[in-house]
Design a protein that fits this description.
By secondary structure, the chain is of the alpha/beta class. The chain has 2 domains: 8-250 and 452-475, Aldehyde Dehydrogenase, Chain A, domain 1 (3-Layer(aba) Sandwich), CATH 3.40.605; 254-442, Aldehyde Dehydrogenase, Chain A, domain 2 (3-Layer(aba) Sandwich). 38% of the residues lie in helices and 21% in strands. It contains 14 helices and 22 strands. The strands form 6 sheets. The protein has a 7-stranded mixed beta sheet, with helices on both faces. α6 (180-193) links the parallel β8 and β9. α2 crosses α6.
Length: 477
């Protein structure tokens, strides 16, 4: 299976850089897909300096001119979706249908930010002084930088690039070294569309070395990060040295509350589909299941049936519903969660081990009667392992749902409208889905609370994150 040539994009030129290359591995076959160039300090400095020139050119364009270029990029991706989706599946492992759906989101996000950039409105403020006009305006914050995780090679990257470009900013972005081809394809779309040189820069390398070098520069005025809470805290400290504004999309550990007045069969079916999407490697994946006692057995039976029906395999094969984990390092993590829960009294219903010895496949796994002190009830699993526990009262389960420090997404299933309203208010998360797992679209804010980070991507909030406010007080002469 062919895989594209890999390059970095610095100041409008595709380059191999000067760093030592890295192998990119297919997680379904463990084969080497390609050789990824990496950046030295000199390459990173060149990218950052280019982003200033790119900002000067891009921000000088009208919002309408920028929108037209971004629309061309969206069309480029649409025209090449089959190729880009295949490369995404090769390097990340998800089924190719999921890759195509992800690219659909990418296209929609580009168009959303491109259009919303034309609506970065300011306002006139009534003045207390005669002959004076007070004008509050929005302007792009400046050159920006971003660092993103591997689980959504398209969505994670485009939230940063499209948000920055829609606001009139330039960007230096370091995608994951494990999933580079998708990010490169998106950057190529913007180059083909005609963004000025230096507006979009893509670099790769050792994550710690790249981020520390880029963040030490005074040129980027904003940083956006998608990844773990631990790394997010480190980057926020580094960004604070130059007072960069930050958007932090960090870890999650989403509870699912299933009440006895819900349609239990539908809840199990919907939740299972969401859980095993991308092999559970989703920051908003449902990860802790709490089911009311009177319907507990019915839910477990329905979820077991849905789990056993999942077809696992190479994401390029027809009919596959779940691919491998992204890397071999994730396999012992999954086994550790299962072994720990069982040792504490949980019952393994189905799954619970690696599939075969080639590729990083792990069985869709369901455990019941999982105690609250099990590691998986407290730490984000980021994989296809499902813990289920029972609960008695609404007050009790809300307390259990809110006990973790991360608050990205929470879900609940209920047929009681008043309870739905209460849950929407009381669940401590930035995203709450009631009888739905759909909490992420280009036009809605996406972000968490507490140690899930701060700031939002998507919606008007996502554009505003790349804008700053200026007051102009003008007195007539």
């Amino acid at each position: 299976m062919s895989y594209p040539e890999l390059d970095m994009l610095i100041d409008g030129a595709w380059t191999k850089g000067s760093g030592a290359p890295m192998d990119v591995i297919n997680p379904a076959t463990e084969e080497v897909l390609g050789s990824l160039p990496t950046a030295t300090d000199a390459d990173l400095d060149a990218a950052v300096e280019a982003s200033q020139r790119g900002f000067d050119a891009w921000s000088a364009m009208t919002a309408l001119e920028r929108q037209k270029i971004m629309e061309k990029a969206a069309r480029y991706i649409e025209d090449n979706v089959d190729r880009i989706a295949r490369d995404c599946t090769l390097e990340q492992g998800k089924p190719v249908l999921e890759s195509k759906l992800e690219l659909g989101f990418v296209v929609d996000a580009i168009r959303w930010y491109a259009e919303e950039g034309k609506r970065a409105y300011g306002r006139l403020i009534p003045s207390r002084f005669p002959g004076t006009r007070l004008i509050a305006t929005k302007e792009p914050v400046g050159p920006t930088c971003a660092f993103v995780a591997w689980n959504f090679p398209g969505v994670n990257v485009i939230r940063k690039i499209a948000g920055a470009l829609g606001a009139g900013c330039s960007i230096v972005i370091k995608p994951s070294e494990e999933t580079p081809a998708t990010a490169i394809a998106l950057a190529r779309a913007f180059q083909e569309a005609g963004v000025p040189d230096g507006t979009v820069n893509v670099v790769f390398g050792d994550p710690a070395a790249v981020s520390s070098r880029v963040l030490a520069s005074d040129i980027p005025r904003k940083m956006s990060f998608t990844g773990s809470t631990a790394i997010g805290k480190l980057l926020a400290r580094q960004a604070s040295e130059t007072l960069k504004r930050c958007t932090m999309e960090l870890g999650g550990h989403a509870p699912v509350l299933v009440f006895d007045d819900a349609d239990v069969g539908t809840a199990a079916k919907v939740a299972a589909a969401a859980k095993f999407r991308n092999a559970g490697q989703v920051c908003i994946s449902p990860t802790r299941f709490y089911v009311q006692e009177s319907v507990y057995g019915d839910f477990v039976d329905a979820f077991e049936a849905a789990t056993k029906a999942i077809k696992v395999g190479n994401g390029l094969e027809e009919g596959v519903q779940m691919g491998p984990l992204v890397a071999d390092r994730r396999l012992p993590v999954m086994q550790g969660f299962v072994d720990d829960a069982v040792s504490r009294g949980a019952t393994l219903v189905t799954g619970g081990k690696r599939i075969g010895n080639q590729g990083y496949f792990y069985e869709p796994t369901l455990m019941k009667d999982v105690p609250e002190d099990a590691a998986i009830m407290n730490d984000e699993p980021f994989g296809p392992v499902v813990p289920v526990a029972s609960f008695g009262t609404e007050e009790e389960v809300i307390g259990r749902a809110n006990k973790v420090k991360v608050g990205l997404a929470s879900y609940a299933f209920t047929g009681d409208g008043e309870r739905a309203n209460r849950l929407g208010r009381k669940l401590n998360a930035g995203l709450v889905g009631i009888n739905s797992m759909s909490v992420s679209t280009p036009e809605t804010p996406f972000g968490g609370v507490d140690e899930s980070g701060y700031g939002s991507e998507g919606g008007v909030e996502g554009l505003d994150a790349f804008l700053r406010t200026k007051l102009v007080s003008e007195t007539g002469v």
